[in-house]
Amino acid sequence: MKVLVLGPGGREHAIIRALLADPEVEQVHCAPGNAGIAQVVPVHAVDADDPAPATQLARELEVDLVVVGPEAPLVAGVADALREAGFPVFGPSQAAARLEGSKAFAKEVMAAAGVPTAMARVATTEAEAADALDTFGAPYVVKDDGLAAGKGVVVTSDRDAALAHANACFAAGGTVVIEEFLDGPEVSLFVITDGTRVLPLSPAQDFKRIFDGDEGPNTGGMGAYTPLPWLPEGFVEEVVERVARPTVDEMRRRGTPFVGVLYCGLAVTRRGLRVIEFNARFGDPETQAVLARLATPLGRLLMDAATGRLDEAERLRWRPESAVAVVVAAQDYPDSPRKGDPIGGLEAAEALEGVHVVHAGTATAPEGEHAGRIVSAGGRVLAVVALGADLDEARDRAYRGTDLIELEGSQHRTDIALKAARGQITVPSHSAPRPRQEQA
Ligand code: AMP
Ligand code: GLY
């Protein structure tokens, strides 16, 4: 099998590592990739967000499968163009990717499918926004309706700040979704689907805020771990039956089947399971941790989803270890990340037992004082990923690797998976699904 992966980041590097471990996968290509991806597969300087060049590249390479990593090409219709050209594609159509591309659309689908989510209102004016804020009360949750790379959401108890964010979105020509605040721990569950059948991966937790203790602004994600030892028994089955399956069924019923991975961003609240958001692709950096544990060959799995042959009965195989991914971000991320600095310590980190480095915003400097060296080229620069016998060991290894990375001004959180490792995450009592009945 020859696979083309579209995208530039850590998620794509993690997907490519997993594809290369599948004996059925003979060749992997990537566009545009990054410096780490270029070390393992051929990369192509093609605008992967644009349907025409992406399809042209797939034709030239004569690939058997295209895997679309990020949301931007999906929302731009890259998967549609590739399918029209006859390629099996892992990734939803433009119409189905609206589940991520418009929060208002996602809410409408959830309402139609009976999927539990936060109560919400769409606002287009300051007066509507103010009214919605006062209806739900503090803490306030204000979301830019369109794509914002995880940074369009403001959660605050400051009503003026909430209103200011809404006004900023209006000024940019957008609308906002204002919703009730969901308490309780968050879970990311990736559900692979061929448009009909659904197959969940192992749940993970992401760390959205830039600073330790969940302080500071939202980012694309500063780290992740999996599995989640604190989840109640039956949690994944509950998400499949109450969230993923009804959503996939509703999208098919509308004539816009969702093929790819439905990212269910969930809160485990006092009142039960709630969807915070859907994404139309694998999460970043959760994928770096989740795929580190997947023992089932990934190429066949994604091909089966792309060609409508997913086997729901398949028992995915997982390595018994825990995985922790720690993101190293550039100075001044998420506002205005500094770029172009050389990165050291990559080989030393990878030499540690159970540790590998997944590149995100990296490039090989073409010229100048660092010519030929790997330099930072994005906000989230890389993730140090470690497997360990338990979360403590995986954390210990990931942080020993992180400490070896040299990048001027870089930042990382020191508390990824810490609460879970210490047993400090509790699920609000009413939310635990009832234990399954014993067979008579
Ligand atoms: P989203 O882009 O919708 O995933 O939102 C980004 C982050 O904002 C989420 O991961 C949550 O941490 C937070 N968030 C979003 N919606 C809510 C909500 N209704 N209640 C509490 N936190 C939220
Ligand atoms: N880690 C959050 C996301 O991928 O959207």
Automatic annotation (TrEMBL):
InterPro entries: ATP-grasp, ATP_grasp_subdomain_1, PreATP-grasp_dom_sf, PRibGlycinamid_synth_ATP-grasp, PRibGlycinamide_synth, PRibGlycinamide_synth_C-dom, PRibGlycinamide_synth_C_sf, PRibGlycinamide_synth_CS. Its cofactor is Mg(2+); Mn(2+). Keywords: ATP-binding, Ligase, Nucleotide-binding, Purine biosynthesis. Residues 107-307 form the ATP-grasp domain. One of its GO terms (molecular function) is phosphoribosylamine-glycine ligase activity. It holds the Pfam family GARS_C. One of its GO terms (biological process) is 'de novo' IMP biosynthetic process. Its EC number is 6.3.4.13. It catalyses: 5-phospho-beta-D-ribosylamine + glycine + ATP = N(1)-(5-phospho-beta-D-ribosyl)glycinamide + ADP + phosphate + H(+). It is an enzyme of class 6 (ligase). The keyword Oxidoreductase does not apply. Pathway: Purine metabolism; IMP biosynthesis via de novo pathway; N(1)-(5-phospho-D-ribosyl)glycinamide from 5-phospho-alpha-D-ribose 1-diphosphate: step 2/2. Belongs to the GARS family. This is Phosphoribosylamine--glycine ligase. It comes from Kocuria dechangensis. The gene is purD.
